[in-house]
Amino acid sequence: MTIQKMALIGTGVMGMGIAQIAAQAGLEVRLFDAKAGAAEQGLAKLKTTLEKLQAKGKMTEQQLADTLARFVVLEKIEDVAGVDMVVEAIIENLDIKQSLFKQLEGIVSSDTILVSNTSSLSVTAIASSLEHQDRVAGFHFFNPVPLMKIVEVIAGLATDEQVVADLLELANRMGHFGVRTKDTPGFIVNHAGRAYGTEALKALGEGVASVSEIDRILREGAGFRMGPLELFDLTALDVSHPVMESIFNQFYQEDRYRPHPLTRQMLAGKKVGRKVGEGFYQYVDGVKTNEAPRQPIPVVTDFKAVWVKADRDEDAAILCEYLENNGITLDSSVEPASDSLILLATYGEDTTTAALRLNVEATRAVSIDMLTDFAKHRTLMPSIATEKSYIDQAHAIFAKNGHGVSVIAESVGFISQRVLAMVINLACDIAQQQIATASDIDKAVKLGLGYPHGPISWGDVLGSDRILLILERIYANTGDQRYRPSLWLSRRARLNIPLLHTSVI
Ligand SMILES: NC(=O)c1ccc[n+]([C@@H]2O[C@H](COP(=O)([O-])OP(=O)(O)OC[C@H]3O[C@@H](n4cnc5c(N)ncnc54)[C@H](O)[C@@H]3O)[C@@H](O)[C@H]2O)c1
Question: Within a 10 A sphere around the Cβ of 319, how many other Cβ atoms?
Fold first, then answer.
């Protein structure tokens, strides 16, 4: 069936966004809201938006007139009769959505598609008391709908395959990328999104680095558009903390999704983020006022020789070339000389553990994170015993030519390593759970969360063997189930085949 006539129930932020892209794609759109005057208001606001688009030359006058002519505001819900599809975008409450769907079933024909824009409720549960559950699906858009070109098409237990196909086709016609997903907590995007924030919170809670430094490392080093803590401030903890708790609990306390007590406490203290002027940062008129400046670069005059030990030969080569180019003497002996700076490029461990494993003195050891782009940002991690003069020397060496350097406290696996390994591992596990195809997960998360790569292909870009090594070491060093590698990732990394590879069976 080609869907041509749509009814939209709930004309709030999401409903009107969906209405806009539907009408622009040529569908007839009927609007209904329980609150008197809300649909008219929604339409008036949309008219202003479309007129602005027309003024900017994004649509012709004719297109504007045609688009607006496709809307009808309904007085009563019974007038949805005769449409091909009803989209529900009302309040996020299971009981209320269930009774609306029951009411709709009494109005529309048995093959009219009924979809919910729910972001956290089970589509199967929404449909559960209906007679014809096969025509119910989730159609989950992201805010703002016209700009976020992704929609999750959620198949509940009873959803007909043809309904999924019709919705994927409609998504495409509306200029959105439709991804098919199973009806599971958080679907794809909100599920995959659990890794970034929770791991950053864990590192913050361990005192690894300050709020500003964690955000800076993940922006400058790993390439995320926003740091995880500033992102929490933007989304606001009254929205994101309950989502973290809900997904964790819906997956029966799976450690990979474990939230952090810090955000619960901040929520209790009403420090929920930018909208109230205080969260992880403070804000005046929405502008951050207390981001910490870069750590000052120490003045060092007497540079000792540097002894380099790396897990990977490629990393050792990059570091040695950099040191030589910057006039630093390399200590090339088998064992470090008695006063050399010991530079370790390791994965998934802290500097104390690395120094003990390599049998070198922790008092002169500083580790450097080589997972992320060395040319963009450098994270240094001394051991708890490293002497200040050696920390200062490493800092001064790597900050040459204005490079961004962050010096962090001991962390099992730096910050970028932990966070990226968790992001990649979680996405791989979503593929392992067959919630969606690996390539759909990759595209959905990139579009839905704005990551610089899809989280599965990111693993291939960085090397799945490295990601596996990070996870295995962190897991071994902490004993925390959270870090156990997904079978999806470990099988592919060990066979040296792409993480996007899908098996025949
Ligand atoms: N806001 C987001 O970022 C976002 C993203 C994805 C999904 N969602 C989901 O979309 C849905 C709508 O969210 P929103 O942010 O647009 O909410 P909103 O508060 O902006 O709009 C909801 C609208 O529904 C109306 N409404 C409430 N109960 C109704 C009922 N029984 N019958 C008819 N109309 C009713 C309200 O009057 C209001 O106009 C929710 O399920 C939400 O979880 C929201």
Answer: 22
